[in-house]
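Q: I'm writing up a methods section and want to include an example of the input and output format. Could you take the sequence below and give the corresponding predicted structure tokens, formatted cleanly so I can copy it straight into the document?
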Amino acid sequence: MRSAHSLSRLVDLRGREVDRLQAEMAVKEDVRRRYLGNLERLDGFYADSGASGALSPAMALNCGEYKQAVLCLAATHRESLVLHEADMAVMQRALTAASCRQEVLGKVLARQLASQQQAAEVREQKRQDELATQVWSRAAR
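A: Here is the clean output for your methods example:
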């Protein structure tokens, strides 16, 4: 009974670990969506800046530098996104492993509880059989 309690506690702790990892994955997914939204906006900024060749030389230079800065920022954002997605993949593997550990412990706990229940039923059946034997032997006298 004590080992079932300990095992139950361990299953609960594994469940908390899974919940924590799921919450962290949700946060990381939100960050990923923000990265994608920012990249979409940066692409829009670049496209909306127009052609720089039709402007005066000073404006064309300014527009070109703006486009270059937007492109550099977008490239940096893409690199950060790739690293973030790699981190998400590692976390997803950790989440999967934690879920598997919890599931395995849950199955072990269920088997142990079923075994204890079966042993209790066997004991109760033996007790009932002994009582029935005593009643029969007293009645036969």
